[in-house]
Amino acid sequence: MHKKPSNRRDFIKKAGLFTASLAAVQFPVWGKSIFALDYPLHNIPENKGIDPQWIKTLYNRGEETTYFKSKNEFKYIGMPVGGLHAGTVYVGGDGRLWLWQIYNETFEGAQEGIEPKTVNWNDGVEVRKIRARDGSAYIEPAIANNKRVLEQGFAVKAVVNGKTFIKELSEEHWDEIVFKPAYPMATIKYSSKDFPVAVYLEVYSPFIPLDAQNSALPATILRVEVKNTSNSSINVSVLGWMENGANKLTGKVKTGKRKNEVLAVENSSSIFSSFEAVSDDVKNAQDSGTMCFTLHKTKGKTYTALDPWPVKSKHFGAAATSSSTADAPEKLVGGIEIAETVSPGKSFKADYSISWHFNNANVNLKKIVKDAQEGFHYATRFKDAGAVSAYLQSNFEKLTKTTELWSTTWNDSTLPYWFLERTFINIDTLATANTYRFADGRFWSWEGVGACAGTCTHVWQYAQAVARIFPELERDLRHRVDLGVGFKEDSGAIIFRAENESRPAIDGQAGTVLRFYREHQMSGDNTFLQTNWPKIKKAVQFMLDQDKNGDGMTDTPMENTLDAVWEGEIAWIVGLCIAAARAGQAMAEEMNDATFAQTCQTYVANGRKNMEQELFNGEYFIHRPDKVQGRKNLGSYNTCHIDQVYGQSWAFQVGLPRVLSKDKAIAALKALWKYNFTADVGPYIKTHVGGRPYALPGEGGMVMNTNPHNEPKPFGENVSWQLGYFHECMSGFEHQVAAHLMAEGMVEESLILTRFIHDRYHAAKRNPFNEIECSDHYARAMASYGTFINACGFEYHGPKGYIKFSPAWNSENFKAPFTSANGWGSYTQKKAGAKQLHTINLKYGELQLQELAFNKIGAGAVKSVSVMLGTQSIPVQLKQNGTELRITSNKKINVKTNESLNITFS
């Protein structure tokens, strides 16, 4: 998590971790006096006290998530609506853009988080200082109205029977505003009794799964629609405005002047914003660049300088201007107006966009990552913001329609709206200042915005979303970084922060081996695996070599994601390495490397047997101490740790055979539910102090590590500052458990845990689009997509042409989206009398299949199958193994855009 543990020591000590008042308490436990004289009692109730009727609602399709002005739910809403790796631009609940973290400011220790600040928090024992990297935005979320860095907005004018009505699209102007978030698109509706038209706004940046280029434009699209709900024609005008944001931070007195000028681009109206600097320092500053405000229609009237607010009639219909300047630091705001007469019942639409181009990376970032020195990938495609706007104009219909098609496809499902939202939303991390793509194409990230450098392997290996939505980014990261910049040729070690570290992390190494297999599966052919196999094999061998005594249970002290070097045999690390070895076996088999496949297979067999015999205490999996060191240093030992069966959880993500027995894995998950999950963390964090505030009293979640049997010194004799982590609810880990619960059939528990996270991020309390761990938009939270994968029972292997669907519930009437290596679409299955019908409807790209697997629906026997690609009958063979129905074709079935593959079992 953290690169600099020394920053944390004081934080944990000051938290009163070893509070004397707690240490002195004695209680009876199991008829004995308490042994935990130096550690607070476990106080998570076994009975979770959750209303059964509420639980039933979690399965329902429900309604789209909607936030209302009238319910005071707009204060914190900030949905990222810029392109991937282009900084952070938020849309607020009322449709106005805010934050504008596009100026390359974020850097560790200086500008961390969405709002770099320290806040006070009473942890139940004392008031503590919480920094951005420790969760200050969870305690005090950034408020939209405090972070409106640039002037931007819209106003609508309607003239009816000689009477003029004007309203800005901002919260105070309307009786009601309704905000519907369906990332990547926000839809906002405005209404007032005193306004004669209905107004709608759609805000998003092009977001097209499998197309990382067109999803990474430094631009936001704003689509205004005005609908005439009256019985007579109405003259309507829309005025949009945008401040010149060039050198916003460094444009001081006598540094230069801002300039707005009209651009001549066919079929559009644009205002290009720049800064004429008087010195090279200002010219080369991080915020030096250009912006462009565009109406994607020809009829727009351009105003290169608008008067101050509020908007009045004089702002509409004035004389157009073609160029304006303003001496810094004076603001310069340009506007574009469009007017039309709207007939009764008809709509008037105006498509605007804002683009930006700031290609000077943070000076500190250039020092730690040489790839940053040449700037960003988008600048290799576009010379300035005007070029971005021109590209949008030329491709507007394709970019917008495909984005809208994805949004419709994702939400056209039988899965609950809230579930679809929470499992997908964290991919918005890619559209924040947490991620970068440098000029040479390299993808790079912090862990959370501006905190902990180097696309850390032991954090990012939890994130399941990117590989399924933009697989090219993950493949490139594996090839260029994990097997390139961060790879040690002599040993096979993968440095867990590439050039920002010098050591491997054992969980990062194992997780990255599993990611090699996933990236291979999310490819259309074998190129990725064949190209990288020699190094992948070395990386697997390095991991296997960390098992010093040959029992299949890694026992080499090495860094892990909890920022410590633990000794002994640790269930979660052991199991993760077993799963990675099984992935190594699968890759070796595909590469016809029988000897190495056998090496991996032996490791898996020994490891599984010994882990289940030696590390399972009859209830859950533990950490067996090192024979020499004992429990001297920090570890989880006999406590109940959130990741204890993480290896099996990972195996489900890539369709591997079981690496742990089902009964023991479920026992471990039941123990986590019993001992670590609570509907109210308040009593726990009040006594178990020292953690960071990622769940507060009154909120539920799963605690990282608990001591259910009240052992003395449960985490070792000489515990270190990292112990504070054990008392937290970190959503990335919770999502990982929720995914595993779903895969093992513990659907109710999975939905409850996911919903509790979802409710922690309700707009009434904080930003729904920003799951926080070590800083904002934390990468590990993208583990949430794994829960969606397992809800669908989805497996996929592109090179083999294999796909499987096995819904976790509602199997008689199920519909959900899916992505593959080269295409995406919708999958449905239904029970129809004695038949079961399965349809793969491809919406985008292409899909090559040769083997398909489904589960039998209901009790009736399946005797035959027919497969139709449109009107073409496809000959297949059917095999039934228990409840699984598997069909194979002698040759690849090529499904193209807008084609459907229909499978009928009778």
Describe what you observe in this structure.
The structure is a single chain. The protein starts with 5 loop residues before the first helix and ends with a strand. The protein folds into three domains: 422 residues, Glycosyltransferase; 254 residues, Beta-galactosidase, Chain A, domain 5; 113 residues, Sandwich (Immunoglobulin-like), CATH 2.60.40.1180. The N terminus is likely disordered. The longest helix is centred in the middle third of the chain and has 21 residues. The strands form eleven sheets. Strands 3-11-12-13-14-22-18-17-16-20 form a ten-stranded antiparallel beta sheet. Strands 33, 34, 35, 36, 37, 38, 39, 40, 41 and 42 form a ten-stranded mixed beta sheet that branches. Strands 10-9-15-21-19 form a five-stranded antiparallel beta sheet, with no helix packed on it. By secondary structure, it is an alpha+beta fold. The protein is built from 23 helices and 42 strands. It holds the Pfam family Glyco_hydr_116N. This is Glycosyl-hydrolase family 116 catalytic region domain-containing protein. GO terms for molecular function: hydrolase activity, hydrolyzing O-glycosyl compounds. One of its GO terms (biological process) is carbohydrate metabolic process. It comes from Pedobacter ginsengisoli.
Entry summary:
Pfam families: DUF608, Glyco_hydr_116N. The protein is an alpha+beta fold and about 900 residues long.
How many DSSP helices? 23
Helical content stands at 25-40%
Distance between the termini: 52 Å
Strand arrangement in the largest pleated sheet: 3-11-12-13-14-22-18-17-16-20
Q: How many strands, what sense, and barrel or not for the largest sheet?
A: 10 strands, antiparallel
GO molecular function: hydrolase activity, hydrolyzing O-glycosyl compounds
Pfam family, one: DUF608
InterPro entries: 6-hairpin_glycosidase_sf (IPR008928), 6hp_glycosidase-like_sf (IPR012341), GH116_catalytic (IPR006775), GH116_N (IPR024462), Non-lysos_glucosylceramidase (IPR052566), TAT_signal (IPR006311)
Domain Glycosyl-hydrolase family 116 catalytic region: 507-785
